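As a warm-up, study this chain.
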Amino acid sequence: MNRFITALTLAIAALPTFAITVDWTCSTDAEQWRNGGNVEITPYDRHVPNDILITNYTDQQIQGFGACFNELGWIALGHLDKQTRNSILNDLFSPEGANFTINRTPIGANDFATEWYSYDETDGDFELKRFSIKHDKRNLIPYIKAALKINPDMKLWASPWSPPQWMKTNRHYSNRADKLNGLSPDKEVPTGNDQFIQEEKYLRTYSKYFSRYVEEYAKKGIKISMIQFQNEPYTFNIWPNTSWTPKGMTNFIGNYLGPEFEKNHPDVELWLGTLNTNNMEHIDFMLNHPTASKYIKGIGFQWEGKDVVDDVHRKYLDLPIIQTENECGSGDNDWKAAEYTFSLIKKYIQGGASIYTYWNMVLQDECLSTWGWSQNALFVVDSKAKTVRCTPEYYVMKHFSHFVKPGAMRLHLMGLTDKTLAFRNPDGSVICVMHNPDDSARKVAITFGDSVITVNLEPHSFNTFTINE
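Now compare it with the structure written out below.
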């Protein structure tokens, strides 16, 4: 305990002295998004140990929070009247709502598309004469434009689940074309080979496929800021996907996609991802590859990536990291799922991620994917009753995204930090987000500068404190 008090004293010495005010927002399963109640602010006494110290030492800069535009989400919103639909969109994208500022969109079909499709299914069309984004005009583009109308500064990044089928070795959108019936979504195994045809004419055409995608979306008034060229290259399953080896990925980025975008789209960043692996040997190989590494501006992780995100951040300190897809759940949409999502957000951001991305913003009824997997969403629409409900995970995301602004710096903490994150916004305000997972209330004392903030956290609650000096 003496060593802990000494550490607190030394850390506090580095902090300025200010009078502070604190606003507290709290959510529980019974009552979401309300004033948390009384906040006790007292002078710091170095002889009295406290639970948490917010230091002035910073780590990564936060670029923002967001989620993914999926076709089934826009279809779900279509069951609602215009006023309700606009209300949900504001809840997602406006500064008064969740303030999602950097969001994902699929390139072609994913598991929440209406059907399988790519932008060019004409076998051997190496000149991409039949390339078309016509399918996206029905659901994806209207969805994205509705968000841009609310937040014109929203950034958008994109990734495909599968290339055109004729570019794959098995000539099928699925990695498990032989198992489309009866394969459970949890039966995933790595292939250990490249399912994209590793021939120059295919690789060169595919790089131009991405280039055309960016150009065609720009014609619709939608700017793509970043590309990650393959969703989950380590997944082997029934929905659209394609397996790649580290050698195949670095060859494509270094010799084809990188040069193509350097020449024609220098303002679009290429990130390595979305990686669903914890194999550091593979990650090191790709990030240190002599040809590909110069084009890689960041790295995207999901699923197994949470096991290595902190190691990657320590080893490649200047490389930004994005969490690309919140683990999708099984359609429970309950408070337990929200508490698990909090643990994921904390794991990735404390590990060094600058961006955190939820998966489905809106689904309907049983929340089923086109390929039969019920997953979680932030809003669930009842297509028959024409009503919508907000799920607990929306509030978890909002407890971060509403308060933590793009450009915020993560602050280091000391003490009992297992359920807490803190940030300093560009305007100087400090945001502290805390989770009490216990079955009982928890009294917590937070040291900030020369003040101690004491609060009583409700059981199983999410709490955000906005501290102004």
